[in-house]
Amino acid sequence: MISAKLAKYLEQKGFMLDFPGYESNEQIAIDILKEENERLYPAIPLLLQEEFDYEKIIKRTDKKLIRRLNKVILIAAKLFKSEGINNVNIFGIVKRFKIKGKITENEFKYYYDSFKEAKQKQEAITQGFLKGQILARKKLTLNKALSDIFAPAKMRIMEKIINHEKLTNTELKYYYRSIRPLALAILDEDLRGYLSIVEAAKKIN
Q1: How many CB atoms are located within 10 Å of the residue 130 CB?
Q2: CA-to-CA distance for 19 and 77, rounded, in angstroms?
Q3: What b/e string do you get for 162-197 counting C-beta neighbours within 10 Å, with b at 16 or more?
Q4: Distance (Å, rounded) from C-alpha 49 to C-alpha 29?
């Protein structure tokens, strides 16, 4: 099996490895429990926020793993309550299967801190995705506006300038003769003010 350290290093170098995915949260939870690594267990409450079939797990694993899972479920239930997360499914599992056990303050703090850190990372990823979407939309809007003003040949020259590509003498002459005067006109505040008045008058009419 390829080590996680090697896989992560290769990914940073741009070499992506394809690994089989998971079909359910239950199977992920089972695999985490089988690792017998306390560092991985705090990931389970993140899975418990989503659709989770407890009965499916207890039918597919042994009592030792079930005991581990039950403790994590108790911690998750306490964590959800402290965070105001109304997880009816997990609360119902605790009640229906009469899951009981003792949770120390240190155990709860460890899971709580891991949960909060993971949620912050999820939020950062979501915000980054949304920011990317907004920038993409802005670019589409900009491209549409530019295409309404400039012909394709002019657009290609402006893209070369933005990308710091060298223009040919013909392109350079074309830029100063046809593109630059129009660009300066667009930037002129008086012209923009005049067009705003035209637009306002159009809406009134």
Answers
A1: 10
A2: 32
A3: eeeeeeeeebeebbeeebeeeeeeeeeeeeeeeeee
A4: 12
Residue among 24, 39, 34, 38 at smallest CA distance from 61: 34
Model pLDDT for residues 86-99, shown as the tens digit of each residue: 999 999 999 999 99
- For residue range 93-149, list pLDDT tens digits in order: 999 999 998 999 999 999 999 999 988 888 887 788 777 777 767 777 777 777 878
Count of CB atoms situated within 10 Å of the CB of 103: 14
Tokens of 34: 């089988």
Residue where the block lists tokens 């239950």: 26
> How do the domains of the chain map onto residue ranges?
4-124, 150-204
Q: 């660009």: which residue's tokens?
A: 183
Distance of CA 154 to the CA centre of its chain: 36
Looking from the CA of 99 toward its CB, the CA atoms found within 13 Å total 24
